[in-house]
Amino acid sequence: MPAVAAASARNAAADSVAALFDAAARRYAPAGRFAVGFARGKLRHDPVFATLLRGRLVPDGARLLDLGCGQGVLLALLVAAAEQYRAGRWPAGWPAPPSRLSLRGIEVLRADVRRARCALGHDAEIEEADLRVAQVTPSDVVVLLDVVHYLEPPAQERLLAAIAGALPPGGLFLMRVGDVTAGAVALLTRVVDHLVTLARGAGLHRFHTRTVPQWVAALERLGFAVNAEPQSEGTPFANVLLVARKHR
After folding, report:
1. What's the number of domains the chain is made of?
2. 8 A C-beta contact, residue 127 and residue 156
3. What integer is the mean pLDDT of 56-82?
4. What is the pTM of this model?
5. Structural domain that includes position 118
6. Which residue in 91, 141, 205, 222 has the fewest CB atoms around it within 10 Å?
């Protein structure tokens, strides 16, 4: 029966995706149960991770730099994806994951740096540094997810310019920002950001936001062609992924 077969295929695909996310989360076992649970929850409930893999945005052999990487969940997922694929455990219909990656992450919070290093070992380089002063090394893909609004406008401009300078023509910059025009949903997003900073012991923080068109214009001035893609499916947030390809 076609309907039964289709349902079975969907269930099998969902199971293989869950297995992939669990494999990435298990890498955090040496860092403790909190790190494992955080990674598993983040991977299961944040659509950006599946988007990156299903869209095959990261090419083979890329030098990938994750700025504000937290405990390195994206990096752990990329490592686990290559392992799962080689073992023949991969979601049906998904393209093969990127291989032979050079992975580097930068994070300011020492506890997150420790957890990332526990999970990734020699599979990625994790640096403890503030993005206001961190060195943006030459890369093929740079990722900046839910971070840029923590920086003051001059620091934002310096960081975006450094990213543009670190990417070759054709290089990819992935930046996720909140849609500040989304009304009550945008307000909820800001409330959650404040709760996260309080939970991390950083106190109240002033965020520096812009509209999505303003972010797009800033990147276009730096030589990027930008596509803005909604990135809130299945969440209560107002997030947009800016997929920026450097053309000069």
Report:
1. 1
2. no
3. 97
4. 0.89
5. 2-246
6. 205
